[in-house]
Amino acid sequence: MSNTKSIRIMLTGGGSAGHIAPILSVIEEFQRIAPDNKLFIDLHYLGPRDDYSGQLERYGVKMHSLPSAKLRRYISIQNIIDIPKFIAALILALLKMLVYMPDAVFSKGGTSAFPVVFAAWVYRIPILIHESDATPGLTNLLSARFATRIAVGFETALKIFRTDAAAFIGNPIRPSLLSQRLSKSAAKTALGFNPEEPLVAILGGSQGASAINEFILSLLPQLLSETAIYHQTGSATYEDCRVIGESVEKELPADVAAKHPYRAVPFTDEMSKVYSAADLIVARAGASTIAELAAFGVPSILVPLPDTASNGHQRLNAYEFAKTGGAVVLEQDNLLPGIFLRQVKHIIGNPAEIEMMSRSATSFYKPDAARLIAEEILRLALRQY
User: Does domain 5-171+367-382 have CATH number 3.40.50.2000?
Assistant: First the structure.
């Protein structure tokens, strides 16, 4: 161990699961790479403390808090409220960075990431930022001016950054998620479904997508006549979904209910099984979700968040991914029962369509994204020696 080199990496980014999931992917690559390269990687996180960033502690990351201050493109009273928080975050970031002085910084953007990037730039610490979406968020647009390297998850984002420091890498997927994938039959069985029957998974996300949940519940009798349903609801609407689902099942003919059960869960740590089992997934169009759909080759119906809720990021993500042929996009304002049911029936009732969409989705997958990001961060860090 005497010739092991110790390096310190500061991680930042937060505000949603979509900001933290890629960080987890890169951490797993660090853990894989470090022993073979005789490295000890001391990982720190500087950003808002919440349920999302709290996942990092399971990986041995040392946590340091910053006030949560969001940068917005639109006029809001919240901007005035956040100005003192932003200043406090900037001062704290400068102090924390001086104390811990990492060898490199990896930023995923989002809440309070810019103060960390700016502080690293002040101390001439190399910075790699990663932009997951098809069009950059405000934090990463500002951070790009101070970044040493910029990695993007969608090729279209390169047109906006317009710098040789930017490269199209893709969105990283946790190796542990992929290593747990099962055959479709085994996965359906593991989740308690008949492996011979179709299965549609509805993903409400960590917070639940109330508009999608309500829409699915209104169509449950028609859907369950065609397919089993796995519904990840989010915690807020779980109980309502469970009760309504049980009520609908009781109204179905016994043979249909037995073949096509409805299962609601508030959240799940079995996503590898869900992706492996599903013949079709209905979900929002977050960048991490799309990357996982591509990795597992699952046909999907994407319902992006309205532009007012996501600054248009999800809509652009969805249409960019749909160009492959692996997904159908139904915007929330056009989420009509007849159109939705026709799409579901067409896909799950047509094995050739499932196979074509699966191959098309897989073509979007960048299997080396996590490795390339981790290796570049380490290269930047080791330049300090």
Answer: yes
